[in-house]
């Protein structure tokens, strides 16, 4: 009898068949970037759990070093700094001995093989918590911000960062950073640009973790409007034209359609950033016993690979590297 329906189950009968026909390769350790919060503190043993991100910690450089030593198959980290003091020029961001610069030197000295990526932004270092310089009337001064961002990237490279990741969303910052890096001889330092970054409620836990919530207003004049998709392609192409080597789409899960569209529009490597709020939701449901947390984490990341991500920044990295990833 010739049936009139499709027998999709034929190829799902055994693990061997399923493995044979799977379209998206399973997640690999080398696809993952682990974000870390490093704190400028006199207490060398400082380690404080972030309440809205269970399992994630603010760490002193010494504790950060201990952490990276213990995570198996850890390939890459993304560093965020929490400085001891803030001002209205974000001077801690580009201080030669700033907290990120200290942490980079320490990690690269102990673990030269670990890829150390730095988040380049001013918000954690600004007294007002915005990602750019503010004028007296409270507006962001885009072009006056660019030299500070560029100087921050150069100081990270001087400390030994393998790659810089600007997240401020000022126009022209990739060109400013590329120019400054090249002028200082860092022609080989790649720029992983947060090209497509939406003004998202999913950053809430991060701002608690990094003490970087804006004290007035919001980030909607520089981060993208969640209703826009075509604009993502404009941003992606602009950053490539300015010299970005690879691009980030952020947040990840709620913007998987954007990831997919950007993947089809450009050819550079793409990174999905599964942000703090996405992690918080997975953990909260897991802690309540409402989902199989590790499986849900893996599935959420596989979805991002399927949508087109080559690599993923995720707070789930540590847990998965410790328990679930075969290699
Ligand atoms: C700094 C920055 C933010 C995130 C990454 N870099 C916060 C923001 O833009 O407010 C968010 C990361 C996360 O939520 O995990 N500008």
CATH topology of one domain: TIM Barrel
User: What percentage of the residues does DSSP assign to strands (E)?
Assistant: 15-25%
Give the total of beta strands. 12
CATH architectural label of one domain? Alpha-Beta Barrel
Overall mean confidence score, pLDDT: 96
Q: What bound compounds does this protein have?
A: ligand PBG
Structure description:
- The structure is a single chain.
- With 327 residues, the protein is α/β, with parallel strands linked by helices.
- It has a domain at 26-246: Alpha-Beta Barrel (TIM Barrel), CATH 3.20.20.
- It contains eleven helices and twelve strands.
- Strands 1, 2, 3, 4, 5, 8, 9, 10, 11 and 12 form a ten-stranded mixed beta sheet that branches. The protein has a two-stranded antiparallel sheet with strand order 6-7.
- α7 crosses α8 (256-265).
- The longest helix is centred in the middle third of the chain and has 18 residues, at 142-159.
- Bound molecules: ligand PBG.
- Ligand PBG binds next to α6.
Structural features:
327 residues, alpha/beta, TIM Barrel, ten-stranded mixed beta sheet, two-stranded antiparallel ribbon, 11 helices, 12 strands, globular, binds ligand PBG
Secondary-structure map with pairings?
Blueprint: H1 15-21, E1 32-39, E2 47-50, E3 53-59, H2 61-70, E4 76-82, H3 99-110, E5 115-120, E6 133-134, E7 140-141, H4 142-159, E8 163-166, H5 173-183, E9 192-197, H6 204-210, H7 230-242, E10 246-250, H8 256-265, E11 270-274, H9 276-287, H10 293-307, E12 311-314, H11 317-323
Parallel strand pairs: 1-3, 1-4, 1-12, 4-5, 5-8, 9-10, 10-11, 11-12
Antiparallel strand pairs: 2-3, 6-7
This protein binds ligand PBG.
């Amino acid at each position: 009898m010739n049936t009139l329906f499709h027998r999709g189950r034929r190829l799902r009968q055994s693990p061997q068949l399923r493995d044979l026909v799977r379209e998206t390769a399973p997640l690999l350790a080398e696809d993952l970037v682990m974000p870390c919060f490093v704190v400028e503190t006199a207490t060398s043993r400082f380690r404080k759990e972030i309440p809205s991100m269970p399992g994630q910690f603010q760490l002193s450089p010494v504790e950060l070093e201990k952490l990276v030593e213990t995570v198996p198959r850890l390939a890459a980290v993304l560093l965020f700094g929490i400085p001891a003091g803030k001002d209205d020029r974000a001077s801690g961001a580009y201080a030669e001995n700033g907290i990120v610069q200290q942490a980079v030197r320490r990690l690269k000295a102990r673990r030269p093989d670990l890829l150390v990526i730095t988040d380049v932004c001013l918000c954690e270092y600004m007294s007002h918590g915005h990602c750019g310089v503010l004028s007296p009337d409270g507006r962001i001064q885009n072009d006056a911000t660019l030299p500070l961002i560029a100087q921050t990237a150069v100081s990270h490279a001087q400390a030994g960062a393998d790659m810089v990741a600007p997240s401020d969303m000022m126009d022209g910052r990739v060109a400013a950073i590329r120019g400054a890096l090249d002028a200082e001889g860092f022609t080989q330092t790649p720029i992983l640009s947060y090209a497509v970054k939406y003004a998202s409620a999913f950053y809430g836990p991060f701002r608690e973790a990094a003490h970087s919530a804006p004290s007035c207003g919001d980030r909607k004049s520089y981060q993208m409007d969640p209703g826009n998709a075509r604009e993502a392609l404009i941003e992606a192409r602009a950053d490539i034209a300015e010299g970005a080597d690879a691009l980030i789409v952020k947040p990840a899960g709620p913007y998987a359609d954007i990831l997919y569209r950007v993947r089809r529009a450009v050819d550079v490597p793409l990174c999905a950033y599964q942000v703090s709020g996405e992690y918080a939701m997975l953990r909260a449901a897991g802690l309540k016993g409402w989902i199989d947390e590790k499986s849900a984490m893996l599935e959420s990341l596989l979805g991002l690979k399927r949508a087109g991500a080559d690599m993923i920044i995720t707070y789930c990295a540590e847990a998965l590297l410790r328990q679930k990833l075969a290699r």
